[in-house]
Amino acid sequence: MVPEMEKLGFKVIPIKFAAESTAQHSLFVKEHAVRVNTDVKPPHRTLFVLNIPSYSTEASIKRVFSEKCDCPVEAVYFHKKPTSSEPPEEDSKFFTSAAIQGFKVGYVVFKSSVGLKAALSLSSIDPLILSSESKPVSTGYEKWAKEYNQRIPDSKELQAEIDKYMTEYDAEQEKIKMKEKEGEADEEGWITVTRRGRKPGFSRKESVHKKVMGRERQKRSRKELLNFYTFQIRESKMKHVAELRQKFEEDKKRIEMLKQARRFKPY
């Protein structure tokens, strides 16, 4: 597998959990380069990393690359599959998305391009050590106990977050109901009229708007560029002149036939 990844332009960097560990894995790294760049993964500063072991954490990857490359790491993003976007932001402290299981794909964003160059020139023999005595990475029972304790929420904080979410949800639903009631008579027969008038052209619902825009995109995609080139314009004009001449000759024959039919013939 290693020679195949090297052929694809990846550099191989060994990695171990601890210095005394016998087992090690191989990280496959290269510069993150895509057609459409984003602010979260800027070009010339982002390292694309494959085959990140499951025991790795964002903090440990950030620490080891910062130390080895002698350049601060601004952010580390983990994904299940390669992507140019950043992971979705967690709005809730308690209701979070499931953690990525198994090997991961990572993006290491350095503060400057110097860090990226240093990462691409790391030794392929000297392995990176994720867990050290000063900054250990928890595993096994310690990790499971920590994760279990983190899953036990504080009842007051949880209730506060739920109340905040329900308040925002109720306000949003109230706005939707007000929009749906526009143009409809209330119990006393009054009608709320907006700038759009009593009979809007189409519904204000987002689903209807998406359908209309989708149809417009399909129409634009099916359009053909007519008379775009010079020879097409010339051929179109010649064809039009030929059609006019043919119509003129047909009209002449029709007039001649009418004259023959009206001519007086006593014998």
TrEMBL record:
**UniProt entry tagged with the keyword Coiled coil:** yes
User: Which part of the chain is the Rrp7 RRM-like N-terminal domain?
Assistant: 9-76
One GO BP on record is: rRNA processing
In this protein, which residues make up the domain named Ribosomal RNA-processing protein 7 C-terminal? 150-267
Q: In the UniProt record, does the keyword Transmembrane occur?
A: no
For this record, the Gene Ontology CC terms, alphabetical, are:
CURI complex; UTP-C complex
What InterPro entries does the annotation carry? Nucleotide-bd_a/b_plait_sf (IPR012677), RBD_domain_sf (IPR035979), RRM_Rrp7 (IPR040447), RRP7 (IPR040446), RRP7_C (IPR024326), Rrp7A_RRM (IPR034890)
What sections of the protein cross the membrane?
none
| Database matches in SUPFAM superfamilies | RNA-binding domain, RBD
Highest taxon of the lineage:
Eukaryota
* Pfam families reported for this sequence: RRM_Rrp7, RRP7
* Gene Ontology MF terms: nucleic acid binding
Using the record for this protein, list the coiled-coil segments as residue ranges, or answer none: 155-182
Q: What are the record keywords, sorted?
A: Coiled coil
Q: Which family does it belong to?
A: Belongs to the RRP7 family.
Its protein name is Ribosomal RNA-processing protein 7 homolog A
Source organism: Ladona fulva (Scarce chaser dragonfly)
